[in-house]
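Lab notebook, bench 4. Still working through the backlog of constructs that have no structural model yet. Next entry is a single chain of 503 residues. Request: give me the structure tokens for it.
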Amino acid sequence: MSLKLSRRDTLLAAASLPLWGATSGHTKPADHYDVIVIGGGTAGIPCALFAALGGARVLLVEKSPSLGGTLFWSTGQIAGSGTVFQQRLGIEDTPDAHFADCMRINGATADPELTRLTVDHAGDTINWLAQQGFEVMDGHPVTGIGHDHFTTRRYQQGTKSGLSILDALLPSLNQAISNQQITLLTGTSATALLQQPSSAITGVTVDGPFGHRDVKASHVVVATGGCAANPRLFEELHGVPLYAQTAYPTSLGNGLLLGMSAGAAIVGAEKYACLPGLIPDAYRYPCQMFAYAPLNPAARSPWEIVVNARGERFVREDHPSVHQIERGIYRQPGHRHWAIFDADMLEKSAPIIPDWTRERIANEHQSNTMFHRAMTVSELAFRAGLNPATLTATVNDYNHSIAVGGADPYGRVSRPSPLAKPPFYSIAMQGWTLVSFAGLSIDASLRVLDREARPIPNLYAIGEVIGAGATSGAAYTNGMLVTPAITFGRLLGQRLASGQSAA
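Model written out:
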């Protein structure tokens, strides 16, 4: 999970794919369907497809003009055991090992039943994608990329990132639409759930090219995005501002609001975790990402120190677990942090911002208020808005520990240089996220639960709308966003087609 495409890139990618407009359907929506799927993205497409393949009459509703959702935006990294890609490399793996790795990485904060459901079926999901033409990058699967690694190579990314997954899904979906097994409405919003006094869901109110109408269904699946593009809803649910506008633009939380209107409980807000190293364009919420310094020791050995708004160090900068660095930043005021370094560190280390030159880093202070340079540490602190006395003491303590060969108070091992040669530099950074951790509460049968943990009859949820915290926990666990979305889509589609409502 990482931001990899600009909005311009996304629009260009979307333009290269089929646009399934509402007028391309064979008929107007019928009065009743076996299954209505709200959201034509990572989870909704496989759910609609497998329900149709199982014989169900399916209506797929997508508010955007095209299908795909965050697959346009995402790297599409997925993980599973027993896959054809592992077999090619002679890698032995099991769902039990996958489960243990996931719960280790997220500190057992993910829902164990949903995690178990994912890992038990993830290999079959990936193998099915491979049968549809999905192919992985050279050298994949790997143990990890941007987050804490697995103990086994089971993590892979498609050759075209998220678009590789969409390319694998669309041909079968196209065929099902042509065969009139699926009715597709794009550019159409689901504005309400139809609900009986007993709380059972009986259909959806849709608004689109065919007008405003109620459509009945035996089962309704909410497979929409999260709310990480909706600053107000994100903050209301998480109690934390949406620091950066980096999520897919349609992730506005519509499915969350639909679920809540039917009495669904919201869970997972307490699992919020922020990524390090976003350099904002300004101190405003939400900001835009001006640049990105990953602060991942696995990718770049750090020379600089990292301090909080008080000018104090708070984390072991070379910790082998980037999750521990993320948790350290989570505990800081406003989730803000500053990289502090000197001329020697700038000259000898790999640039802290990938693809930037040292010269640009050294001179960016001339035009950007997130960057500062000064001839003394005290002056640097003043310019950066930090406490000069505290930052000076922090730097002096760091240098003294190196000079006397003392242990670092945070356990840092790699200290290649003291912070002593002017000019001195600081870069202001903000914790950020691409996803929302809060989501609709579901059980292992993917049924939406109310505030008393009772299933709301005929209502299901999969994908981002269940919240990242459900399967990734209070961490960014490898593949545990895209993988469960596709996997739960397959499983739920199959079950609803066969009349099952339980796992």
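Notes after review: Residues 1-26 have pLDDT under 50 and may be disordered. The first strand starts at residue 32 and ends at 38. Flag for follow-up if needed.
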